[in-house]
Amino acid sequence: MPNGNQTRINLKNMAGRSFEIATARDFYNKLLEDYAAFNEDPTSSRLAINCAMTAWHLSDWIYYDYQSTLITLFPKIRLYQEFLSIQHCTDLEIMRCITNGSKHCAPHNGKQMVQGTGIHKGVFAKQFSRQHDISYLKVMLVDGSEARFEDVLERVIAFWRTYTISQFGWTFN
């Protein structure tokens, strides 16, 4: 039974269950912090999964923060997420596949872009430039191509920045 000194939990949204992360903007900042940590250790699967989950779940946070605006076009969150990942940023679909693969430990029923993930073991230390054979996390796509996870992540972060500025008037320093 809560007493007067305890914080009330807002059960209407995720904010009451996410410590001090209460808005989509807070969650975007979490993505930037996750990305900074990943850049320090760019072959860490743990940090990459954290980045993928945050990058994908930002779509949830934005949908619910701006639901009054978005619900007329997208009565269900999945429609909004498909709109984003198909028409605006296909790299978001890669983040969804990694997120669901990490959560469910098995392939998700339905459309898949990602065949698997792995690490390329280079012979040079990470301090060398990409022109050398350095180690990196890779994403193998169902079309047979490969992508560096860090490149996909950087494109998704750039997308979120541009999208939130154009659609919701966010400003950045």
Instruction: Characterize the overall form.
Output: globular
Element-by-element helix/strand order:
HHHHHEEEH
Query: What proportion of the residues form beta strands (DSSP E)?
Result: 5-15%
Helix content: 40-55%
Radius of gyration: 18 Å
Could you tell me how far the N terminus lies from the C terminus, measured between alpha carbons in angstroms? 43 Å
The overall pLDDT, averaged over residues, is 87
Please summarize the sheet with the most strands. 3 strands, antiparallel
How many alpha or pi helices?
Answer: 6
List the uncertain runs: 1-12
- SS content category: mainly alpha
> What is the number of E strands?
3
How would you describe the oligomerization state of the chains in this entry?
Answer: single chain
Question: Strands of the biggest beta sheet: in what spatial order?
Answer: 1-2-3
Describe the 3D structure.
This protein is mainly α and 173 residues long. The chain has a domain at 14-109 and 149-166. It has helices at residues 24-40, 45-65, 67-70, 77-88, 90-104, 149-168; strands at residues 114-120, 136-141, 146-148. Strands 1-2-3 form a three-stranded antiparallel β-sheet. Strand 2 and strand 3 form a beta hairpin. The relative contact order is 0.13. Residues 1-12 have low confidence and may be disordered.
